[in-house]
Structure formats: C-alpha cells, structure tokens
Write a structure and sequence with these properties.
Layout: H1 3-10, H2 14-62, H3 67-72, H4 95-98, H5 180-190, H6 194-209, H7 243-256, H8 268-280, H9 294-311, H10 314-329, H11 350-365, H12 372-386
Helix pairs in contact: 7-8, 7-9, 9-10, 9-11, 10-11
Length: 390
C-alpha cells in the first residue's frame, strides 16, 4: 500500500469527524456534562471554604486591634486619684523675678535607663548640664530670654536617655524622650517635683474617669461618665460635642506621660479603647478622621501619629499615613493654607493651619512619609499672612 493511501485510511475525513463528534455527544455528552458540573460545584465550595478565612484575615488587618486581644486585657477599676492639697508658695513680682532665668542646670549623678521602644544605648555616660533638645526639622526656636536659638535637622530631642549628667544619650530623634529614663532626666534637670508628677497623675486619672463607654470622649456630656459624686466638672452646653477632637485631647496627655496601648499600666485599656474608637470613625477611602472640620482631623492626626511613633505598632501605620495624606490633599494649592473644610476655596485660616502642621510634624517624628512640598506651600501661606495678605 502506498503512503498516500495509508494516510487516507488512517486519518478520517472532515465529514467523518463531524458525524463522529455528533454521535459521541448524543451517546456520552450528558454524562460528561453532569460530571463537569459536579466538579465545578466542588471547586466553588472548596474555594469559598478556603478563601473565606483569607478574606476575613485581610479585613482584620485593616482594623486597628484584634477584639480577642482587647478582651484579654484585665482592666483594673479606675478610682478617683486625690492629688491632695499643694502648699501655696507666695510669688514676688518684680523686675528680677519676671526676667526669665537661664535653663536650670544641676549636678546629677543618678543614671536613668530608658524604656522607650526606640531607645538606643549611648555607650556610656557623658557630661551634660541639662536635657538637650534639637531643632524642629528646619524651624528656628528663638529663646525668649538669655541664650542662643536652637536649630537642628531632626525631630524633637537629640536624646535624653542614659547618661550620668542630666541625661545625655538616647535615640536622638522622634519620640525618644518619652521613655521613663528620659522623663526622669528631664524632671531632674528642669525643676520637676513630686507634686508636679502627682498633678500629671491626677489629670490622666480624671480623663480616664470621664471617657465614654464606647472609648471616645466628648465636650458636652462627659460628666455623666464620672462615678464620683464630688465631680465638679462643667460640661459644654452648646457648640457641639466634637468627639474626634475631644478624643484626641483625651489621648494626648497619656502619650505625653509615656503611656501607650501597649505599655503596661492602669490606663492601657483606656488608651486602647480610645484608639479603637478613632479607627472605627476613620473614612477608609479618604483617610479622614471623623466627619467634623479640619480642626478635628488635624488634632486626631497628631494623636494617631504619636500613638504609632511611641509604640511602633504596625497596625497603626496605615491609618496614620492615610490621615497624613488627607491633610496633604486638603491643602489649598494656590495659597498653601487650610480652612475649616478640605480643599477650601478661601485662602486659609492660621489656627487651622497650625493644627495641620503639628499633625505633619508628629508624622515626621514618627517616621511616616510626608510631602516636602506641602510644607513649602505652608511656609508660603504663613509668609503671606505675616505681611497682612490674607
């Protein structure tokens, strides 16, 4: 048999293929169709079963805090902390007493070891006459009284952690000065006393006792939260509750005292609840904190950036960075200012601008990304209003 004849015998014609396929579908198609359908159903069910936990995990990563972790914290009941009577020292007002003296400098032999999360050992003590602070990232700080201006490239503080004399050393920038050792060194060199520390303790205690059950604070009905019958606080009767701004003001004193939602202490749960309240009231699309004015957003940005800077809790980084981005997007491009609303048609308002700049500075100190051009435009605005061109 020749090759061509052999190929014709082996390979069917197109008509034969068409008839064969039609016969196969008629005899076997429905069985294969059912089989394919069943396999698709099985794959879909498995995909949902496997994919659902993964989707849930991704959603949990967006939320600040795991509720199971929150419940695991045993919160001690917050009782009224009585600061007691502080002896009144009469003040003599004259030219000498009203003249600002040089910064306090005392000999100090005690060593203060810092517990800050961003602390770096200084490698031994070094002589220092007092707590030392750097510049504010390009802004001059002029002395009111005697003494030179201070200027530096980094965040607030060149380090007041470990040291033998007034607290030299430490991490050098950002929030390095909030740890226990740093605070003790600054108190020792700056005139802090046991009474001043007790006043700080009484103030944070008062804030904790006036926190709302949902974790936020407010301006109008906070007295209802206090269980102390002797509470003499007067709530605001008009002007709005402003919960986002009030919550920021409620949290910032705890951060200033070196306390966070991750540091062990009587107010760990208070701080955690406050941050969780902020998280649940942030617009996930725009990054805006609360639905109020730019005043409130600026204040809340300061608080959330400080919380991240102090704790380095990565769950806070995204929300804090989003809040910064909203400030930058809300700036008036032509004037460089901010007003009560985002992207204002008006030039700007200096008080609103101040809160936004403080939020951006807190972000910078916390190691978050900030757009340098935002500050360039803000300086342009401040220069214009300083000349009366508002």
């Amino acid at each position: 048999m020749k090759f061509n004849e052999l190929m014709k015998a082996i390979i069917p014609t197109p008509q034969e293929v068409k008839v064969g396929v039609a016969n196969w579908f008629k005899e076997n198609g429905k069985f294969w169709g059912v089989s394919v359908g069943m396999h698709l159903v099985i794959f879909v069910v498995l995909g949902v079963a496997i994919g659902a936990p993964q989707a849930k995990k991704l959603l949990q990563e967006v939320v600040f805090f795991d509720t199971e972790v929150d419940q695991a914290i045993e919160e001690a009941p917050i009782t009224h902390f009585d600061v007691g009577e502080t002896p009144v020292e009469p003040t003599v007002l004259n030219t000498e007493s009203l003249t600002e003296p040089p910064a306090a400098t005392i000999e100090q032999d005690a060593q203060f070891n810092d517990n800050s999360a961003v602390f770096e050992a200084a490698g031994g003590g070094s002589a220092a006459t007092g707590a030392s602070f750097g510049g504010l990232g390009g802004f001059d700080v002029s002395a009111i009284g005697a003494g030179p201006a201070v200027r530096g490239p980094g965040g607030v503080g060149v380090g007041v952690g470990t040291g033998d004399k007034g607290g030299s050393g430490g991490a050098g920038e950002g929030f390095a000065g909030r740890g226990t050792g740093s605070r003790q060194a600054m108190l020792a060199s700056g005139g802090g006393t046991a009474d001043s520390e007790r006043s700080v303790g009484a103030a944070t205690n008062w804030l904790a006792r006036h926190q709302n059950p949902d974790g936020g604070w407010g301006c109008m009905e906070f007295t209802k939260q206090c269980k102390d019958p002797s509470c003499s606080a007067h709530a605001q009767k008009a002007g709005g509750d402003h919960p986002m701004a009030a919550t920021a003001f409620g949290l910032l004193p705890f951060f200033a005292a070196g306390q966070t939602h991750e540091s062990k202490g009587p107010y760990q749960g208070v701080i955690r609840k406050g941050l969780l309240w902020m998280a649940t009231h942030q617009d996930q699309k725009t990054g805006r904190l609360g639905g109020g004015s730019m005043y409130e957003h600026g204040l809340a940005t300061i608080a959330i950036c400080e919380a991240y800077g102090l704790s380095k809790d990565q769950k806070l980084r995204g929300p804090a960075q989003a809040a910064v981005a909203f400030i930058e997007d809300a700036q008036n491009d032509s004037s460089g200012g901010w007003h009560y609303t985002a992207n204002p048609p008006t030039v700007g308002d200096t008080s609103v601008v101040g809160w936004q700049l403080m939020g951006l500075k807190s972000a910078h100190m916390a190691g978050l990304k900030t757009n340098p051009q935002t500050l360039v435009k803000a300086k342009k605005f401040l220069a214009s209003v300083a000349k009366g061109k508002s």
